[in-house]
Amino acid sequence: MSATKSRARDIRRVRRQRRHRCWDHLIIAPLWVAYQANLGTLLRTCDAVGACMALPDTDHYRQALATGDSRRLRERTCLHWLDTGKDRWVRQQRAAGWRIVAVELAEGAVALPRLPAAEERTVVLLGHETGGLPEEHVDAADLCVEIPMIGTGASLNVAVAGSLVLYRLAGLA
Ligand SMILES: C[S@@+](CC[C@H](N)C(=O)[O-])C[C@H]1O[C@@H](n2cnc3c(N)ncnc32)[C@H](O)[C@@H]1O
Q: Which of 28, 32, 105, 144 to mutate to test the pocket of ligand 1 (most atoms within 8 A of CB)?
Protein backbone atom coordinates (compact mmCIF):
# COMPACT_ATOMS: atom_id res chain seq x y z
CA MET A 1 0.00 0.00 0.00
CA SER A 2 1.30 3.48 -0.83
CA ALA A 3 2.28 5.91 1.94
CA THR A 4 -0.55 8.26 0.91
CA LYS A 5 -3.18 5.55 1.17
CA SER A 6 -2.01 4.36 4.55
CA ARG A 7 -1.93 7.97 5.86
CA ALA A 8 -5.51 8.53 4.69
CA ARG A 9 -6.59 5.37 6.50
CA ASP A 10 -4.83 6.46 9.70
CA ILE A 11 -6.43 9.90 9.51
CA ARG A 12 -9.87 8.36 9.03
CA ARG A 13 -9.40 6.10 12.04
CA VAL A 14 -8.57 9.04 14.30
CA ARG A 15 -10.99 11.65 12.93
CA ARG A 16 -14.06 9.74 11.78
CA GLN A 17 -15.39 8.10 14.89
CA ARG A 18 -18.49 10.16 15.49
CA ARG A 19 -21.90 9.06 14.42
CA HIS A 20 -24.64 11.61 14.86
CA ARG A 21 -28.24 11.44 15.76
CA CYS A 22 -30.64 14.32 15.25
CA TRP A 23 -29.02 17.65 16.18
CA ASP A 24 -32.20 19.50 15.30
CA HIS A 25 -30.15 22.05 13.38
CA LEU A 26 -29.69 21.32 9.69
CA ILE A 27 -32.01 19.26 7.45
CA ILE A 28 -31.47 18.68 3.74
CA ALA A 29 -34.82 18.10 2.03
CA PRO A 30 -34.40 16.62 -1.47
CA LEU A 31 -38.19 16.34 -1.70
CA TRP A 32 -38.22 16.60 -5.49
CA VAL A 33 -34.97 14.72 -6.21
CA ALA A 34 -35.76 11.50 -8.06
CA TYR A 35 -32.57 9.58 -8.77
CA GLN A 36 -31.16 7.02 -6.36
CA ALA A 37 -27.51 7.94 -6.96
CA ASN A 38 -28.21 11.57 -6.04
CA LEU A 39 -30.00 10.57 -2.83
CA GLY A 40 -27.10 8.25 -1.93
CA THR A 41 -24.55 11.01 -2.52
CA LEU A 42 -26.56 13.50 -0.44
CA LEU A 43 -26.85 10.97 2.38
CA ARG A 44 -23.08 10.61 2.39
CA THR A 45 -22.70 14.39 2.66
CA CYS A 46 -25.24 14.44 5.53
CA ASP A 47 -23.10 11.93 7.40
CA ALA A 48 -19.98 14.00 6.73
CA VAL A 49 -21.38 17.34 7.95
CA GLY A 50 -23.79 16.12 10.63
CA ALA A 51 -27.00 17.05 8.83
CA CYS A 52 -30.32 15.19 8.79
CA MET A 53 -32.26 14.28 5.65
CA ALA A 54 -36.01 14.64 5.12
CA LEU A 55 -37.78 12.52 2.48
CA PRO A 56 -41.34 11.77 1.39
CA ASP A 57 -42.45 8.49 2.94
CA THR A 58 -43.27 6.72 -0.31
CA ASP A 59 -42.19 3.41 -1.84
CA HIS A 60 -40.26 5.33 -4.49
CA TYR A 61 -38.11 7.22 -1.96
CA ARG A 62 -37.58 4.26 0.35
CA GLN A 63 -36.50 2.12 -2.62
CA ALA A 64 -34.37 4.85 -4.24
CA LEU A 65 -32.55 5.57 -1.00
CA ALA A 66 -31.92 1.89 -0.31
CA THR A 67 -30.44 1.45 -3.79
CA GLY A 68 -28.42 4.68 -3.83
CA ASP A 69 -27.01 4.19 -0.34
CA SER A 70 -24.22 1.74 -1.14
CA ARG A 71 -22.57 2.34 2.26
CA ARG A 72 -25.57 1.64 4.44
CA LEU A 73 -25.37 5.14 5.87
CA ARG A 74 -29.15 5.29 6.20
CA GLU A 75 -28.82 3.14 9.31
CA ARG A 76 -26.53 5.70 10.92
CA THR A 77 -27.81 9.02 9.58
CA CYS A 78 -30.86 10.81 10.91
CA LEU A 79 -33.77 10.45 8.46
CA HIS A 80 -37.03 12.36 8.82
CA TRP A 81 -39.75 10.57 6.84
CA LEU A 82 -42.53 13.03 5.99
CA ASP A 83 -45.84 12.16 7.58
CA THR A 84 -47.67 14.59 5.31
CA GLY A 85 -47.46 16.12 1.81
CA LYS A 86 -44.37 18.08 0.73
CA ASP A 87 -45.99 21.53 0.65
CA ARG A 88 -47.64 21.03 4.02
CA TRP A 89 -44.42 19.71 5.58
CA VAL A 90 -42.47 22.78 4.46
CA ARG A 91 -45.21 25.05 5.87
CA GLN A 92 -45.13 23.14 9.15
CA GLN A 93 -41.36 23.49 9.44
CA ARG A 94 -41.60 27.23 8.84
CA ALA A 95 -44.38 27.55 11.42
CA ALA A 96 -42.20 25.64 13.88
CA GLY A 97 -39.45 28.24 13.47
CA TRP A 98 -37.16 26.61 10.93
CA ARG A 99 -35.57 28.87 8.32
CA ILE A 100 -36.27 27.64 4.78
CA VAL A 101 -33.39 27.89 2.30
CA ALA A 102 -34.09 27.15 -1.37
CA VAL A 103 -31.16 26.03 -3.52
CA GLU A 104 -31.96 27.26 -7.01
CA LEU A 105 -30.89 29.55 -9.81
CA ALA A 106 -33.13 32.55 -9.25
CA GLU A 107 -33.27 36.32 -9.44
CA GLY A 108 -32.14 37.86 -6.17
CA ALA A 109 -30.53 34.67 -4.88
CA VAL A 110 -27.53 34.91 -2.55
CA ALA A 111 -24.33 33.64 -4.17
CA LEU A 112 -22.84 30.64 -2.37
CA PRO A 113 -19.59 32.39 -1.31
CA ARG A 114 -21.74 34.92 0.62
CA LEU A 115 -23.75 32.29 2.44
CA PRO A 116 -22.87 32.27 6.16
CA ALA A 117 -22.97 29.17 8.36
CA ALA A 118 -26.44 28.44 9.70
CA GLU A 119 -26.98 30.01 13.10
CA GLU A 120 -30.59 28.96 13.33
CA ARG A 121 -32.42 25.73 12.53
CA THR A 122 -32.40 25.43 8.75
CA VAL A 123 -34.20 23.30 6.15
CA VAL A 124 -32.55 23.16 2.71
CA LEU A 125 -34.82 22.48 -0.30
CA LEU A 126 -33.44 20.91 -3.49
CA GLY A 127 -35.17 20.67 -6.87
CA HIS A 128 -35.90 17.89 -9.33
CA GLU A 129 -33.14 16.84 -11.75
CA THR A 130 -35.00 18.20 -14.77
CA GLY A 131 -37.89 20.24 -13.38
CA GLY A 132 -36.01 22.14 -10.67
CA LEU A 133 -37.64 23.46 -7.49
CA PRO A 134 -41.31 24.46 -7.78
CA GLU A 135 -41.49 28.23 -8.16
CA GLU A 136 -43.82 28.70 -5.21
CA HIS A 137 -41.16 27.22 -2.91
CA VAL A 138 -38.46 29.47 -4.32
CA ASP A 139 -40.73 32.48 -3.76
CA ALA A 140 -41.79 31.45 -0.28
CA ALA A 141 -38.29 30.56 0.98
CA ASP A 142 -36.59 32.79 3.55
CA LEU A 143 -33.49 32.70 1.40
CA CYS A 144 -32.52 31.41 -2.02
CA VAL A 145 -28.92 30.34 -2.69
CA GLU A 146 -27.36 30.14 -6.13
CA ILE A 147 -24.02 28.53 -6.88
CA PRO A 148 -22.15 30.70 -9.38
CA MET A 149 -21.16 28.97 -12.62
CA ILE A 150 -18.90 30.35 -15.32
CA GLY A 151 -19.02 27.45 -17.76
CA THR A 152 -21.51 26.54 -20.42
CA GLY A 153 -23.67 24.09 -18.46
CA ALA A 154 -27.10 25.32 -17.38
CA SER A 155 -26.85 23.86 -13.87
CA LEU A 156 -24.93 21.55 -11.56
CA ASN A 157 -25.84 18.02 -10.59
CA VAL A 158 -28.30 18.36 -7.71
CA ALA A 159 -26.23 16.24 -5.29
CA VAL A 160 -23.18 18.40 -5.99
CA ALA A 161 -25.24 21.58 -5.48
CA GLY A 162 -26.78 20.28 -2.25
CA SER A 163 -23.43 19.13 -0.90
CA LEU A 164 -21.76 22.49 -1.55
CA VAL A 165 -24.56 24.33 0.23
CA LEU A 166 -24.56 21.89 3.16
CA TYR A 167 -20.84 22.36 3.68
CA ARG A 168 -21.31 26.17 3.85
CA LEU A 169 -24.30 25.98 6.19
CA ALA A 170 -22.49 23.50 8.44
CA GLY A 171 -19.60 25.96 8.67
CA LEU A 172 -17.12 23.47 7.24
CA ALA A 173 -16.30 25.34 4.00
C1 LIG B 1 -30.13 19.89 -12.44
S2 LIG B 1 -30.88 21.15 -11.56
C3 LIG B 1 -32.42 21.45 -12.38
C4 LIG B 1 -32.29 22.11 -13.65
C5 LIG B 1 -33.61 22.32 -14.36
N6 LIG B 1 -33.45 21.97 -15.72
C7 LIG B 1 -34.10 23.72 -14.26
O8 LIG B 1 -34.07 24.42 -15.25
O9 LIG B 1 -34.54 24.16 -13.17
C10 LIG B 1 -31.50 20.31 -10.14
C11 LIG B 1 -31.43 21.11 -8.88
O12 LIG B 1 -30.07 21.28 -8.50
C13 LIG B 1 -29.91 22.52 -7.82
N14 LIG B 1 -28.93 23.32 -8.59
C15 LIG B 1 -28.21 22.90 -9.65
N16 LIG B 1 -27.35 23.84 -10.03
C17 LIG B 1 -27.51 24.90 -9.20
C18 LIG B 1 -26.90 26.18 -9.08
N19 LIG B 1 -25.91 26.58 -9.91
N20 LIG B 1 -27.30 26.99 -8.10
C21 LIG B 1 -28.29 26.61 -7.24
N22 LIG B 1 -28.91 25.41 -7.31
C23 LIG B 1 -28.52 24.56 -8.27
C24 LIG B 1 -31.29 23.12 -7.72
O25 LIG B 1 -31.88 22.72 -6.51
C26 LIG B 1 -32.00 22.50 -8.90
O27 LIG B 1 -33.40 22.52 -8.76
A: 105
